[in-house]
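Re: your question from the hallway

Yes, I did run it. Sequences:
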Amino acid sequence: MMAAWRRLGASPWMFAGPAVAASIVFVWLPMASTLGLSFFDWSLLRQEATWRGLDHYRGTLANPDFHLALGNTGLYLAALIPLQVGIPLVLAFALVRVKAKTIGRLYRTALFAPSVLSFPVAAVVWLWLFNPTVGFLNTLGGSIGLAPQRWLSDPSLAIWSVIIVAFWKSFGLNLLIFLAALANVPTDVTEAARIDGTSAIRQAIDIELPLISPALFFALVTTIIVVLDEIVGAVDVLTEGGPYRTSSNLLYFLYERGFRHFQFGEAAAVAVLIAAIVASVTWAQFQFGERHVHYD
Amino acid sequence: MSRAISRRPLILGAAALAAPAVLPRQSLGNDVKVDLVHLWSGADHPIQKLIKAFNDKGTGVTVVSRQDGTTYETITQKAMASIAAGRGPAMMTTGWKLGDFARKTLGAQDFRQIFGPERAEALLAKFRPQVRPLAAVSGVPIGLPWSMSTPVVYINQSLWAAAGLDPAAAPKTVEELYPMVRQLQEKTGKQGLCYEVNEWLPQAFIQNAGGDVIDADSKPAMDSAAAVKGIEAFVQPRRDNLWRVMTIPEMVAAFQAGAIGVMASSSARQSVVRSAAKFDLRLIQMPGLAGHPRRMNSGGNLLAVYSKVKEQQDGAYKFMEFVSSKEGFEIWLETGYLNVTTNDIPVRPGNEAAQAQMEGGLTSETIWPGARGLEALTVHIDWITKIVNGAVSVPEGLRSDREAVEKLVMA
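Structure:
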């Protein structure tokens, strides 16, 4: 082993060095600093730190707003993963079977278009649609006799409004991933199945789905990241986590602690807890999800 | 393709490149650059006109506009990071509610120390005596009290008249206003009323009922009997289905579209509302509560100096002198803020109600004390929102609010 390393000389270090240095400076050192900071009360300006031990962790874990943000994060995941993975998957199976190429392209473009927007921009568009008095959704609902809804200010609806926007904005990317994967399914396999009289549904479930499972797993991993992370832009623009934290999530809770209330020690503790939660979810994904993926 | 370079172009090029380093600094312009961090967007916003008018005077100071966010909290957060990095703003518009934080944490400068007592007094003397304490923290003047607004009632005069209401009626109390709103809603089919759900408008109701959000001893007092009465009056139209609760941007958009008859909001929102409204707009003073003396509140921001560099502090002084002048303040009043100076400037059309409300006396915006004051403010808004949504009764909600806020401000 050592001899092999010696034979390679400095080359591995030269190739890997810049990437390793960047990850140390931009990932590992900030993570270590955050961990350290979580044990102190710290002011950005005075640069003074007061030792607080595990107080910030105890305080955060006992904070009802943290529990609410944690529960909401679970709800966002539970609602958006099936929506953002399941619906694009079904649509992709349908779209590859559209024979008319122009219509197929038109559908793909229309469905993918919202994905090019950033979350805050998408949210601004929806602010107008959600307006309880002059918004399109209530106008449409009113025309069929539905009562007007307070999409963003009703505590039981606000989180679902954010979910609608997140779904609309993000599902196009997964659709594109599935379409690309389905395009790579060998035609001789599907042709053989068709000649054998396999129905389109059986063909999709038993042949195409296993063949695109790496893409499915990739979409699942990235969707979880989007739901845990990027959705915060939509939360901020649409509801600011309200009304009374009912649409907040863990990352928004962290943002509020750190950058609205300027409690950096507490925010660091929240960041460490979020990192632990995300690491657990990712571990579970690879532990239980990847075994169903066929890379052959 | 190759191209030879002769000696002359080579020398000229080298000279052009070396000139900035060799020539005296004065030849490139020696204006002191003073940046002003604010939260107003738009190239035609009065802040840009104000800065341009000052810079055009050629005083040797150039003010640089820096919009760092759209809320006081956001610009404060960014200022905090830039101060920590050693590149803090020279001047920043600082929300009054953040005055305590600005002084104790961000290091907003004491005008008497940086300008000298006499120059500081000369500058502040241009402002009315009743507003000067609003820009001071524990008696220390840390800013120019230049931007003042107050809650007023916006009336869609077209709907008001269509409902058969007296076009000149200006209800003095909410007990007079609410039946009129009911009539408007029933006659026009439009939503009668909308209030802002935040900490500011409810403060007006609490004070007008004789209570306080935070009392003179800096103790939370939002669950006093008077405060409960004030908030009961605040939520009454929601119970009576005259008010469909919505976010502030939704409320403004719906009012501009002519879908709401009456809206209570900041007088500083007037220019924005007026710009898009296609109906006759009338502003009246915020009604009080029957049987109680009026005690309306104000809000806004002060212009504070954060730079510790003498040259920039002097530059900021020159700009503030201009801002306080009649010429400067005439430009600033285009925002919808009130004339808080001693300059004799005619009241802008539409601003009469807010100006009259100020002449009647205004209290300050609630200042949230302690290191966790900003968190206490969030908690307070959450409880007010719960009450407005009917998730909790007014006395119970305000009691829980007081208990939660107490823990934070006493921490």
